[in-house]
Amino acid sequence: MELFYRQFGEGRPLIILHGIFGISDNWVSFGKKMAAQAYHVYIPDQRNHGRSPHHSAFNYYALTEDLLEFIEDQNIREPVILGHSMGGKVAMRFTLENPALVRALVVVDTSLRTYVSHSQHRELIDAMKSVDFKKLNSRQEVGHHLRGRIESARIRQFLMKNLFWKEKGLLAWRINLDAIDLNLESMYDGVFYSTIYKNPVLFIRGGRSGYITEEDIPVIKKSFPNADVITIAEGTHWVHADAPAAFYHAVSGFLKRLSR
Q1: Of all residues in the chain, what percent carry a pLDDT higher than 90?
Q2: CA 185 to chain CA centroid, nearest Å
Q3: Which of 62, 65, 76, 92 gets the highest tally of CB atoms within 10 A of its CB?
Q4: In what order do the strands lie in the sheet with 227-232?
Q5: How would you label 199-229 residue by residue, b for 16+ Cβ within 10 Å and e otherwise?
Q6: pLDDT by residue (tens digit) across 8-24?
Q7: Are 22 and 84 in contact (CB under 8 A)?
Q8: Closest by alpha carbon to 19, among 85, 106, 94, 91?
Q9: Domain boundaries, given as residue ranges, for the chain
Q10: Segments in 82-215 forming alpha helices (H)
Q11: Global pTM?
Q12: How far is it between the farthest Cα atoms of the chain?
């Protein structure tokens, strides 16, 4: 699948993979900062998200294959791969399947284990599907409608990044809600490989998130023996948005150590 992507800078390759309901635009500010540190930053929209194609197949096998195809098409050599949430699962799977192709790995607030289904994700899908674009014809009206179903203003704004003008006067969701809804349970799948990836790895977790627990760390170390796990205390699952300065400091510090 030919993915839409944004790119910034020149130098060592860094691929950034967004999470579910996300788009490449969410990572532009961070990507530009990394580009200023002599990185060639690639930020693709994963399938069924952003401006990338829609497809009924939506699982980690397909997403990982998309990443391999993207790397081959762009002729990227030994990238650092950074992934958040769903993107982190894709990054881990790809790295364990292709350890020789990856220079280093950064995983943001997800672990290898299978997660219990999160009702919040289903609630967000239902909220987005409840929008009647024949009646709500401005971003403000959509935001007002979502306010009645989603308490968090930040999450509402995050979801509304998926809005676009389908035609004059008619808004729509870019994201393929039907495919994501149908395949949502597969997004909680764990990462199970016998491969051991020995290059440097950084796991970043939010102090107010439960996605990486203390019990997860020994399992992480089995697959990634050279992994460091750091906690950004004020962060939730969206730690990169909650504490952008601390997040940038953690990632840039890790990458600087790679070049020593």
Answers
A1: 96
A2: 17
A3: 92
A4: 5-8, 39-44, 12-17, 80-84, 104-108, 201-206, 227-232
A5: bbbbbbbbeebebbeeebeeebeebbeebeb
A6: 999 999 999 999 999 99
A7: yes
A8: 85
A9: 5-114+190-258, 119-182
A10: 86-97, 119-129, 139-147, 153-160, 177-182
A11: 0.97
A12: 58
